[in-house]
Amino acid sequence: MDCPSEENLIRMKLDEISSIKNLDFDIPNRQLTVFHIGEIQETEAAIIQLNLGGQKISTENTDITEFEEDSNQQKLLWTVLLINFTFFGIEMTTGFFSKSMGLVADSLDMLADAFVYGISLFAVGGTIIKKKRIARLAGYFQIILAIIGFGEVLRRFWMVEEIPDFSTMIIVSIFALIANGLCLFLLQRSKSKNEAHMKASMIFTSNDVIINLGVITAGVLVNWLDSNRPDLIIGTIVFLLVVRGARQILQIAK
Q1: Between the CA of residue 221 and those of 90, 137, 157, 176, what are the distances in Å?
Q2: Can you name the residues that pair with 167 across neighbouring β-strands?
Q3: Across-strand partners of 34?
Q4: N or C: which end of the chain has fewer CB within 10 A?
Q5: Are strands 20-26 and 31-36 parallel, antiparallel or unpaired?
Q6: Could you tell me which residues are beta bridge partners of residue 31?
Q7: What is the rounded CA–CA span in Å between residue 84 and residue 136?
Q8: Over 70: is that where the pLDDT of 121 sits?
Q9: 26: region left, alpha or beta (phi > 0 left; psi from -120 to 50 alpha)
Q10: Distance, C-alpha 134 to centroid of its chain
């Protein structure tokens, strides 16, 4: 459970199992506690289908029957979704005009996170079929965009060496880094009474922060080497991460 979107993906996958009453995530220790009634085989099978390396540790009885819910969860999801979607637009636009594939790829990573939040929000109260349809569309859309991005990387690598605007890469990525920090702050504040969720939120944005730092580093190298290779390399890495996330989304749409 170390991928930024994995907790939401697991929640969506297990949402169709009526015997599950609550899920308690401890992402730093890669553990999930499932409160359920009856047999656990269906839940185990669903988790295994996600190919996240899940396996049962133990099963025991509990007297817990009531679970606290965060009344502000939807508001929080909307806020983080809007932040991610806004920076998708900013990075896609600036990446296009500055000729930076690193920014374009990072924008798709932002869009991938926004998709996961959106799936959680728009499918609330909907049927399982509706949830899976939305997840399937989101997954395929991300893969299509990533393939287009890969094609552009190859074109620039073999045919035209377009030097991106390194200053735009660095400045926009710094603002994206600040945006991810804001998301982290909001998630931590909303879960301040739940240590496991606070730790989970820190890991939730770690990949995005690393990507932002990678694009900043690529911008510095573009200026230093006067080459587009660093930008193409970071772009390729991020596109691969986007495809990985899209495949996980498609897993829950089966």
Answers
A1: 22, 37, 16, 19
A2: none
A3: 23
A4: C
A5: antiparallel
A6: 26
A7: 20
A8: no
A9: beta
A10: 16
Question: Is the torsion defined by CA of 107, 108, 112, 117 positive or negative?
Answer: positive
Q: Under a CB-based contact definition with an 8 Å cutoff, are residues 185 and 210 in contact?
A: no
Q: How many residues does the chain have?
A: 254
Which residues sit opposite 24 in a β-bridge?
33
DSSP 42: H
What is each CA distance from 52 to 41, 49, 223, in whole angstroms? 17, 8, 39
The rounded percent of the chain whose pLDDT value lies above 90 is: 16
**What whole-number distance in Å separates Cα of residue 24 and Cα of residue 31?**
9
Phi, psi of 54 (to 5 degrees): -75, 145
CB 106 within 8 A of CB 211: yes
Q: What is the pLDDT of residues 88-117, one digit of tens each?
A: 999 999 998 998 988 988 888 788 777 766
Q: Which residue has the tokens 């301040």?
A: 192
The residues pairing with 22 across neighbouring beta strands, listed in sequence order, are 35
What CA–CA distance (Å, rounded) separates 106 from 239?
A: 8
Instruction: Report the distance separating Cα 251 and Cα 164, nearest Å.
Output: 36
pLDDT at 160 over 80: no
What pTM was computed for the model? Answer: 0.63
Residue given tokens 């939040």 in the structure block: 117
